């Protein structure tokens, strides 16, 4: 019941602070989206979610998020290709890539697109929250 109340509060009060930042969570795993949304809305962020590349590009274009959390792999599209598309709409949009595989080839391709940070799965939720705060602070 407590988890339900947190989720409801997030929906009811997304603009508690005029300075709130918008975070786009891109993940095909509903449970992970729910968890990230639950945790990040407590930090007074407005949260939007997507589970596919078309919706993601539409949200980047229309909602103008301040940060994208991109879980990879995403269904039917590579992470570097997804970030390239995002950069076409909003070149300076910072991204945090969540990945189970921190191989050098992937990291280099994504780093080349600029303004990206990484966190490996499994991760400690507090570490992700800290990385989000640091990334958004750098953008102010």
What order do the helices and strands come in, and which of them pair?
Elements (H helix, E strand, L loop, with lengths): L1 H11 L9 E5 L3 H12 L4 E5 L2 H11 L3 E5 L7 H11 L5 E5 L4 H8 L4 E5 L4 H14 L2
Helix pairs in contact: 1-2, 3-4
Unreliable residue stretches: 1-18
Distance between the termini: 36 Å
> What would you call the quaternary organization?
single chain
What's the number of domains? Answer: 1
The CATH fourth-level homologous superfamily? Response regulator
Tell me the Rg in angstroms.
14 Å
Using the coordinates above, name the CATH class: Alpha Beta
Describe the main β-sheet briefly.
5 strands, parallel
Q: Strand order across the biggest sheet?
A: 2-1-3-4-5
What series of H and E elements makes up the topology? HEHEHEHEHEH
Helix share bin: 40-55%
CATH architecture: 3-Layer(aba) Sandwich
Annotated CATH topology: Rossmann fold
Give the count of helical stretches: 6
Look at the structure and give the mean pLDDT: 80
């Amino acid at each position: 019941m407590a988890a339900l109340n947190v989720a409801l509060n997030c929906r009811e009060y997304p603009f508690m602070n005029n300075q709130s930042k918008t975070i786009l969570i891109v993940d095909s795993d509903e449970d992970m989206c729910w968890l990230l949304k639950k945790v990040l809305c407590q930090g007074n962020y407005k949260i939007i979610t997507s589970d596919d590349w078309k919706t993601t590009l539409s949200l980047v274009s229309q909602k103008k998020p301040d940060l994208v959390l991109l879980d990879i792999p995403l269904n039917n599209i590579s992470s570097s290709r997804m970030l390239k598309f995002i950069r076409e709409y909003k070149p300076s949009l910072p991204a945090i890539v969540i990945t189970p595989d921190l191989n050098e080839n992937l990291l280099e391709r994504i780093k080349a697109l600029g303004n990206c940070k990484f966190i490996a799965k499994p991760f400690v939720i507090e570490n992700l929250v800290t990385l989000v705060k640091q990334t958004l602070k750098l953008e102010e």
